[in-house]
Amino acid sequence: MLCLIWIILLNKMLLTSSMKLSIVIPAYNEEKRIKASLEKIIAYMKKERYDYEIIVINDGSTDKTKEVVLEFNNVTVLDNPNNKGKGYSVRGGFLYAKGDWILFSDADLSTPIEELETCFRYIKEYEVIIASRNLPMSKIVVKQPLLRSNLGKIFPFFVRLLLLPGIHDSQCGFKLFSNKAAKAVAEKQKIEGFCFDAEQMFIAKKLRYKIKEIPVTWANDERSKVRIIKDSLKMFFDLFKVRINALNGAYDKNLNK
How far is residue 168 from each of residues 10, 44, 131, 209, measured CA to CA in Å? Predict the structure, then answer.
């Protein structure tokens, strides 16, 4: 058993020793949450052997999000001209990022940064590794309110039906992409709102990148920026928009990796 642990640790060191990781965090009015999240990420990354960069995309915040982030001299801030949407922000972060691997993480760290360890187990075989709250081994520490929970079950059903058969949770805000996959997906991405995750996964499959869905620990944050009715309806509409885009060939050009 001890020998196996040493083999796993050695394998991780060999995989990551010369690697650079980009961490992309979209932020809209995150003044109250972003400082603690950045402190946790930086403390974790200081223990790692590889280089990294943290990129916060300030999505037209009207509070002091930018001022709080600028307190960290090792964090890059990208400013959207106004509130463009989460998908727009992540896309911009992907196109800017320089790392060999690019992690998209929600600003609230509902999925803890330590789950990066689990993601790295699969980077030899997969170009996209996505966190999931809906797999048997997933651990939900703090559950969502009943209405959000129910919508969280209905929406994935339609995602599987219309776009992504076999994917249980496209919306968890913790996804690791190879640089090549992230750039290719971002260049074709069209959805600027909360449904961008499903579109990104759909594009990745169209481009024949291998996707791994992994169980993670997850805790709901009651300060979610998702407006339960308005944003949910927009997300359902955008699912059909992605399907229409696909039927019109919007994602079919230049499929060679």
Answer: 32, 28, 10, 18
User: Per the domain annotation, does 1 fall within a domain?
Assistant: no
Domains in the chain, number = 1
- Select from 211, 235, 82 the least CA-distant residue to 148: 235
Looking from the CA of 213 toward its CB, the CA atoms found within 13 Å total 18
**Distance, CA of 110 to CA of 247 (rounded, Å):** 35
Q: How is residue 183 written in tokens? A: 């750039």
CATH number at residue 56: 3.90.550.10
Please report whether residue 190 resides in a domain: yes
50, 19 in Cβ contact below 8 A? yes
Q: For 173-228, what is each residue's pLDDT tens digit?
A: 999 999 999 999 999 999 999 999 999 999 999 999 999 999 999 887 766 666 66
> pTM value?
0.88
Domain residues for 154? 7-247
